[in-house]
Amino acid sequence: MKTSRLPARTVDAARVLFCFSTVAFLAHTASAEDAAEGVASAEPAEQTRPAGWVDEARVIAAGQAEPGSWLAHGQTYDELRFSTLTEINRDTVDSLGLAWVKNLNIPHRLQATPLVIDGVMYFTDSWSVAYAVDARTGEEIWRFDPETDRGSARYSCCGGPANRGVAAYKGKLYFATFDARLVAVDQATGERIWDVDTTHYPTHSPYTITGAPRVVHGKVFIGQSSSEFGIRGHLSAYDAETGELAWRFFVVPGDPAEPFEHPELEEAAKTWGGEWWKLGGGGTVWHSIVYDAKFDQLIFGTGNGAPWPRKIRSPGGGDNLFLGGVMSVNPNTGRMNWFYQMTPADNWDFNACQDIALLDMEIDGKVRSVLLQGPKNGFFYVLDRENGELLRANPYVRLNWATHIDMATGRPVEDPEMAYDEKAQWVLPSNAGGHSWQAMAVDPDRGIAYLPVQDMSAWYGLPQSFLDTGEYELNPNGISLGVDMRPAEDAPPQPEAAGYLKAIDPLTGEVVWSVERATPYNGGTLATAGGLVFHGDAAGQLAAYDADDGSTRWEYDTQGSTPASPITYEIEGEQYLAVLVGRAWRREESDGRMMVFKLGAEGEMTRELGEAEIPQPPPLTVGEEDVARGEALYNRTCVGCHGIGGVATINADLRMMSEETHERFQDIVRGGVLADKGMLSFAAAVTEDEAELIRQYVISQALKARAAPPAQDNRRPGRD
Ligand code: CA
Predict the structure, then answer these.
(1) Are 590 and 103 in contact (CB under 8 A)?
(2) What are the tens digits of pLDDT across the range 526-555?
């Protein structure tokens, strides 16, 4: 039973927020089981429930009762992504082969974790087309297209549309869309039941959603993505039956001249400076939401500050609650229990939306109920989830923005030399984070976290216009980072990028083993009691590593990219491995697909894809100065989807443009002829002359890449 729930840091706010949390706690003492029983009378009796029925009791029991299912985003509420299935193990994995493939006819990034419930697999593609397929064969049972507005692609922060999957609850499936709707469909038929806009403005604003909802206590929880469009992040709870808004928790306070939407914001507002509400503030809850059945709390990661530089966002300082941390609320009321801020006064896009795993661990001689998280800022955290107390924080990648976490205050100790307000420079980790949305897996028996990480740096500098005038304006046509990411002419060489799968001891920070992958920004993980850790890379190599020492036990070339997180399930005694495979990085045109493996299967890909070379572009017809203008225009308008320097792994890599595409460039960019594929008309954002300068810049990038050895070309985007 909980007693006190002091926020672990943010001392000023702590005393007051403690009162809120105490009140909230006293007002609600029902356990998950109580809540499930409380509404059971309106539901079909247990014996007559349709196949696929998922409720709290089933998910809580699943770890023991049905290890062959994958009922929720991280398999169960604890989100360990650790399967106790053992048919596929380090001795048998050799014979793992392709059982079936389902082509999805979509060229965008695929990130969903599928669910497998009573023999049926459910997942979404990038535009949130939802599929139900026979998990043994891939045969389609139904599909539902929510007709996501392709125009929403323009609000992508990080490489175009994506969706990370569905939630199942009491006969319905829930998922969100890139145009920021939350949709409920009948789990058996795929028919739409309700469909709501999750934004809080009267007309649709530049919100997108890439995350998967969670459902518990008759409520569906969802946040949004893309802080960098002048928006305020929030997590909302909707009635699972009706889609009616139940409560909403804002991460960033609004204009203090208006009433605060909930009392926590009054305290939060004291930690902000200037007129932050005019710039939105950021803080989107774009990925992790977990339900903690033990303490009946909802825990979610909060987004980065936007614009990124605190000097622009919150002049005068302040920690900027509730950015960049882990928030616990009461799932019934949305009232705060506790908050721990990983990155006070975020300056770097260091959100804490990365996945959260729940388990018990013995720490300093005492069993504690903890949460584990490796947020973007490069430190791996162990928090006591009863009260948010910091127990451990150790670096898991190369980092230079802070020296360490002060365990007494719970605060990172920033390296003043690295404050880019004074001097633009390379910062580690980059805005992509040391770890992002790609799932980690945690083996609760070994007490080891398997974390997909990247050593990547980014150039951070304040925009010249802000340095000159002290003013900052949001970009009305696109993303507003507030940071100039173009390295200075006299910049030192960029630190080399590399991607790893690391087995980490969360208590000591020790890297038990580490595998360097061929590409720096890779996939999610799955660990199993078969002694294996599955992990795919951006170049499409899906691998199984020995959980003991990281040695390679199995490898498969998916001929795509495998950033999505694999899952495993069992039907009629056979164990399967499933993963969504996205468009290949620098392969010939390829479609996304679901690929499923089992022992002894010998399925084959329907077609082999070759490596694609960057074609010879048309000649550059402008001088260096105009190329630089083109670059600035590109960075203002195109970089969000097409990547830094035109290097995109998932959306079109513009350096790959054919002669014909170069000829149609104006029609595509300003005419909108590829609008149905998500490439809208940018006629309002760039003039014909400006579009041509962008094209010239892309040509310069293609020429540069053709001249450089391939190993140099490792600046992968894929930020969130
Ligand atoms: Ca961000």
Answers:
(1) no
(2) 999 999 999 999 888 999 999 999 999 999
Coil, strand or helix: which one is 35? helix
CA–CA separation, 222 and 249 (whole Å): 11
C-alpha 284 to ligand 1 mean position (Å): 8
CA of 324 to the centre of ligand 1 (A): 10
Instruction: Give the Å distances, CA to CA, from 599 to 99, 596, 607.
Output: 8, 11, 22
Do 379 and 392 contact (CB within 8 A), yes or no? no
**Non-local CB neighbours of 208 within 8 Å, separated by 6+ positions:** 152, 155, 156, 157, 161, 178, 179, 180, 224, 225, 226
Q: What is the DSSP letter of 386?
A: T
Rg (CA), the chain: 24
Please state, in angstroms and as integers, the Cα–Cα distance from residue 92 to each residue in 83, 87, 328, 575, following that order. 16, 7, 42, 11
Q: Judge contact between 715 and 647, C-beta under 8 A.
A: yes
- Preceding amide of 256 cis, omega within 30: no
Task: Give yes or no for a contact between 718 and 521, defined as CB atoms under 8 angstroms apart.
Answer: yes
CA–CA separation, 456 vs 458, rounded Å?
Answer: 7
According to DSSP, residue 520 is labeled S
Could you tell me if 179 and 186 are in contact, meaning their C-beta atoms sit under 8 angstroms apart?
Answer: no
Interatomic CA distance for residues 414 and 423, integer angstroms = 15
Kindly give the distance from the C-alpha atom of residue 162 to the centroid of ligand 1, in angstroms, as a whole number. 15
459 and 489 Cβ atoms separated by less than 8 Å: no
Residue with tokens 């006070």: 344
Nearest CA to 601 out of 98, 14, 129 is that of 98
CA–CA distance, 97 with 576 (Å, rounded to integer):
10
Neighbours of 510 (CB within 10 A): 11
Question: Per mean pLDDT, which range of 47-51, 144-148, 661-665 is the poorest?
Answer: 47-51
Calculate the alpha carbon distances from 262 to 34, 227, 339 in Å: 27, 21, 15
CA dist 378 and 348 (Å) reads 12
Domain made up of 624-707: CATH architecture = Orthogonal Bundle (1.10)
CB 462 within 8 A of CB 484: yes
353 C-alpha to center of ligand 1: Å? 9
DSSP classification of residue 232: B
Give the integer Cα–Cα distance in Å for 443 and 431.
28
Instruction: Report the Cα 694 to chain-centroid distance in Å.
Output: 29
Please indicate whether residue 349 is annotated as part of the active site.
Answer: yes
pLDDT digits (tens, 9 = 90+) for 579-620: 999 876 555 556 789 999 999 999 887 655 555 678 899 999
For residue 644, the CA-to-ligand 1 centroid distance in Å is: 15
Q: Ligand 1: distance of its center to the CA of 262 in Å?
A: 24
Ligand 1 centre and the CA of 460: distance in Å?
A: 14
DSSP 295: T
Cα-to-centroid distance, 14 and ligand 1 (Å): 26
Q: Is the pLDDT of residue 5 over 50?
A: no
Q: Residues 78, 292, 349, 653: which is the catalytic one?
A: 349
Which residues are CB-contacts of 225 (< 8 A; sequence separation ≥ 6)? 157, 158, 207, 208, 209, 210, 211, 284, 286, 720
The answer to pTM > 0.70 is yes
pLDDT at 429 over 80: yes
Q: What is the band of 419 on the pLDDT scale with cuts at 50, 70, 90?
A: confident
Distance CA 439, CA 452 (A): 7
- How do the domains of the chain map onto residue ranges? 624-707
